[in-house]
Design goal:
Blueprint: E1 2-3, H1 6-14, E2 31-33, E3 45-46, E4 62-63, H2 68-76, H3 84-94, E5 95-98, E6 123-126, H4 133-144, E7 165-169, E8 175-176
Parallel strand pairs: 5-6
Antiparallel strand pairs: 1-2, 2-3, 4-7, 6-7, 7-8
């Protein structure tokens, strides 16, 4: 459960928890969890975006479509029209993949994608520029442990590891593309 009451903030101050610097800003609603039983009663910040675009204003903008089996399970629970075969064409139609710049100087290991999984839609997807060597090392370690390397996480089977994609706008040199920037998309495109 989440709250933003002054009593919870007082409890946090009494217990001397240090809140992160971005809690309670003009772009964050200042929500906190109730005391968490399995975390020794700790109260945690629960960041939720307070601006046009909602939480896409403050999150890392990771983009992942999820597993086909999850969507298909929704259909099995009585939600027709929500199966992977129903939503996948809409994912493809609504997104556009921005290829990495081979001259960027950044390590582009494991930055692979399936071109047919994207069209020319308004939601711009791409890889981050700089990738720490620890990320590349982690993927190599996974590969050595026989964890599969995935070609594209957005095709319905992301079991394995790879560099993830995010909502990145090519027109701004790879800046974050928030929900608000595509919220005025004509319905005909969707």
């Amino acid at each position: 459960m989440v709250t933003n009451s002054s009593a919870v903030r007082q409890t946090i101050q009494t217990r001397q928890y240090k809140l992160s610097d971005d809690t309670g800003t003009a772009i964050d609603w200042s929500f906190y969890t109730l005391p968490q039983e399995h975390l020794g009663g700790r109260i945690l910040p629960y960041h939720r975006g307070r601006g046009l675009g909602g939480s896409s204003v403050i999150n890392g903008l990771y983009y992942g479509r999820g597993s086909a089996s999850v969507y298909d399970r929704w259909v099995g629970l009585g939600n027709p029209g929500w199966g992977w075969d129903d939503v996948y064409p809409l994912f493809v139609k609504s997104s556009h993949f921005n290829r990495p710049n081979p001259n960027s100087g950044f390590d582009q290991s494991f930055q692979t994608w399936e071109p047919s999984a994207y069209a020319n839609g308004p939601l711009e997807i791409g890889f981050q520029g700089f990738v720490p060597q620890s990320n590349i090392g982690f993927i190599h370690a996974c590969e050595a442990a026989n964890i599969p390397i995935v070609n594209d996480l957005n095709t319905g089977n992301g079991t394995g590891v790879k560099q993830g994609t995010g909502c990145l706008d090519a027109d701004t040199g790879g800046a974050r593309a928030m929900t608000v920037s595509i919220s005025r998309v004509p319905v005909a495109l969707i």
